[in-house]
Structures are given as C-alpha cells and as structure tokens.
Write a structure and sequence with these properties.
The radius of gyration is 19 Å and the shape is flat. Helices cover 76% and strands 0% of the residues. It contains 14 helices and no strands. The protein folds into two domains: 156 residues, UbiA prenyltransferase (Tetracycline Repressor, domain 2), CATH 1.10.357; 133 residues. 48% of the residues are buried. It starts with 13 loop residues before the first helix and ends with a helix. The chain is mostly helical.
Length: 301
C-alpha cells in the first residue's frame, strides 16, 4: 500500500510543482545528458538537440515527482525533506501522481518523435528504474538501495549519446559506469552526516544498518572503482590526453578526500567535515570530469 497523509484544502502552487521535479538533482542529470549528446560523433540539429535534453530533464523531473508521491510519509519524518510539497501539505497526492505520470509519458513520446526509438526506450527505462526499482522496491528494504538504484541516475549521458547516434557505444557505456560507481560514495558521504534523518524514517541506509566506520570503508573502496572507471576511457584509447590528465588529477583528489573520510573517527555530524568535503567535491568532480570529456572530443575533432 502507498502511504497516506492529510489532504490540504488549497490547490498546489506552481512553485510546488517545480519543487516536485527536484531541480537541484535535475541540473546534474541535464548536464551529464548534454555531455553525452555533445561528445557523440554525430551532431543533432540544434532544435532537436535542445528537445532531446528537454526530454531528459522532463523525464528526470517526472521520476522525482513520482518518488515524492510514493515517499510522502518518509519525507515527513526527515528534517531535510519535511518542507517538500506533500509532507508540508501544500499539495494533494493525486496531483503529484498525475503530474508525474503525465510528465513521464510526455517526455518519452516527445523523445521518440524528436530523435529515435532507442533513446525513448532508454528514457522510459530510466524513469521506471528510479520509480519502481529504487523507490518502490529497494529504498525501504535494503542498504544496497543506492548501489543498485544508482543506475537510474547513470542513464542521461547514454541517452544523450543515443539520441544523437541511434546506437550504444563503449564510451557512453563507460560514462554510465562512472556515474553508477560514483553514486554510492556520493550519497553515503551525505548519509553519514544526516543519518539521524534516515534512522528516524526507518530507511536502511548503510550508516544506519552497518555503522559509521563500515560506511567509511565502503566509501573508500567505491572511490577506488570510480577512479578506475574514470581513467578507463583514456586507457582504452577512447579519449585523448586532455581527458586523461583531467581524469587522473580529479580522481586523485577524490581518493585523497575518501582516505580522509576513512581516517576520520568522529561519530557526530559536527565532526564530519571530511564527509562534507567529499560530498561537495563529488558534485564538482562529476561536472569537471564530464566537461573534460566534451572538451577533449572537440579538441580532437
């Protein structure tokens, strides 16, 4: 059964609809999707390219809306999410459901019309994976929710590439792998200093079920795999030296910060400055790494 909360009397404000799409998360999704599109060997006409990125953004927003629709009860129990439209009772759940489903369908159909069937299929899979696999199946059941569910956020560069080329190639598959492996250390760093929220909501995030030090170890181990995946496109000859140098330098900093997290023994949010630094840098890391992919491809061209 899906959770229920009290229904507000007033209709939703447009800003609440925007908030349902998780704009901050969407910005990273849109950026990596754009990088996949721009790194592809074939270029779409500008209007179609813009439409493809718009569809990726709308698909991500739709997934965010459906996630909040299903998790309204969890969001109400956590301080950092309690002011979202549904737990704050500024919107009824039916509105959120209709908005999410409608936006999902529109984004997939538009992607199919503007680009190709495969790009539309991948977009649909990414939405369904985030909503059904991560949100409905994994989030409340296992500490591996982020590990497996991270695949949903890894689709955008693959979708962008396929929108331009109509096929899946090794480079976008590696870009998918980078985000997939990056997601656990990124979110676990966050979950360490907000673990009380997850504990209050009874969400089995790794720090809640396996402890702080085990989580720090897992962050370090996954950071090693991120570094390996980041360097792989250069090592395999799919990118040039510019990307290779950027990947090595950026990943080295990532690993230094991950080691600092592993070495930290503090068990209170106030003492978790290394975790906060890694979380903040991980966002910059992904932006910089994907920028390097595009710049490297353009320089080579």
């Amino acid at each position: 059964m899906t959770p229920t909360i009290a229904q507000p009397a007033l209709p939703a404000d447009w800003r609440d609809l925007v908030a349902l799409t998780k704009p901050r998360v969407m910005s990273l999704v849109v950026f990596t999707g754009l990088c996949g599109l721009l790194a592809a060997p074939e270029m779409l006409p500008p209007v179609l390219g813009f439409t493809a990125i718009l569809c990726i953004a709308l698909g991500a927003g739709a997934a965010g809306a459906l996630n909040q629709w299903y998790e309204a009860d969890l969001d109400a129990k956590m301080r950092r999410t309690a002011n979202r439209p549904l737990p704050a009772q500024r919107m009824d759940r039916q509105t959120a459901l209709h908005f999410g489903v409608g936006l999902s369908a529109f984004s997939v159909v538009l992607m199919d019309l503007a680009t190709n069937h495969l790009a539309a299929l991948l977009l649909a899979i990414s939405i369904l994976f985030y909503v059904l696999v991560y949100t409905v199946w994994l989030k409340r059941r296992t500490a591996q929710n982020i590990v497996i569910g991270g695949a949903a956020g890894a689709f955008p560069p693959l979708i962008g590439w396929v929108a331009a080329t109509g096929q899946i190639d090794l480079l976008p598959a590696l870009l998918f792998a980078i985000i997939f492996l990056w997601t656990p250390p990124h979110f676990w760093a966050l979950s360490l200093f907000v673990r009380s929220d997850y504990a209050a909501a009874n969400v089995p995030m790794l720090p809640v079920v396996a402890g702080i030090q085990n989580t720090r170890l897992q962050i370090l181990l996954y950071s090693l795999t991120v570094a390996g995946a980041a360097v792989a496109p250069w090592a395999l000859g799919l990118t040039g030296t510019l990307y290779g140098v950027a990947a090595v330098v950026l990943s080295a900093v990532f690993l230094v910060l991950a080691v600092a997290v592993f070495a930290n023994k503090a068990d209170t949010p106030a003492g978790m400055k290394p975790e906060r630094r890694l979380f903040a840098y991980s966002i910059l890391y992904l932006f910089a790494l994907f920028t390097a992919v595009v710049v490297d491809r353009w320089v080579a061209a």
